[in-house]
Design a protein that fits this description.
The protein is built from four helices and seven strands; from the N terminus they run E-H-H-E-E-E-H-E-H-E-E. The radius of gyration is 16 Å and the shape is globular. Helix 3 links the parallel strand 4 and strand 5. About 30% of the residues lie in helices and about 25% in strands.
Length: about 180
């Protein structure tokens, strides 16, 4: 069964709790930062996801998710497309928070999310996608397989981690 990403809208607002729980699970499992440092505050992360949902309503962001194909209907992954606010960059989009449940990794969830995100980006007139991920993470090795080109590494600051930056030109004709 092929997994497909679904575009979040206000009809799916009940899923925000699952997005927050997935976010927390990924931070705890991977020891990743993903915008938050430990100790984690459930309330802070839930509020953060509510703010992202408000950005969807305002049109500055899209959220895509994949649900388990079984009866549980649990969210197995989520990713976001942030639209450029700069007048000089309406063709750009930022890939943010590709989060896949540790139980659903290497099962096509990440690829389905990125395919869905790239399709939405094209529909929105985006031709260049950019993203960053923690240097040394599993994600750093995932993106090149999807056609993303490594730009460079920003060194860590004190206790934070280094970040690796990538881009993908959607005009290149290499759809997922």
């Amino acid at each position: 069964m092929e997994l497909q990403a679904t575009l979040y809208d206000s009809f799916h607002s009940d899923l925000l709790t699952q997005f927050a729980s997935l976010h927390i699970a990924c931070i705890n499992h991977d020891y990743t930062i993903a915008s938050f440092v430990t100790p984690l505050s459930d309330l802070k992360i839930h509020t953060w996801w509510q703010d992202r949902a408000n950005e969807v309503k305002s049109g500055s962001r899209d959220i895509l998710f994949v649900m388990a194909p079984d009866k549980s209907r649990d969210v197995t992954g989520v990713v976001m497309l942030r639209k450029s606010e700069a007048e000089t960059g309406p063709f750009r989009g930022m890939v943010e928070k590709l989060l896949v449940s540790p139980d659903w990794r290497r099962k096509g969830v990440g690829r389905a999310l990125m395919k869905g995100l790239e399709d939405v980006a094209r529909e929105r007139g985006k031709t260049l996608l950019m993203l960053d991920t923690e240097t040394g993470s599993l994600a750093e090795n995932f993106y090149p397989g999807l056609g993303y080109v490594k730009v460079g590494v920003i060194p860590k600051d004190r206790t934070l981690k280094s970040e690796t930056f990538f881009y993908k030109d959607l005009r290149s004709g290499n759809p997922l």
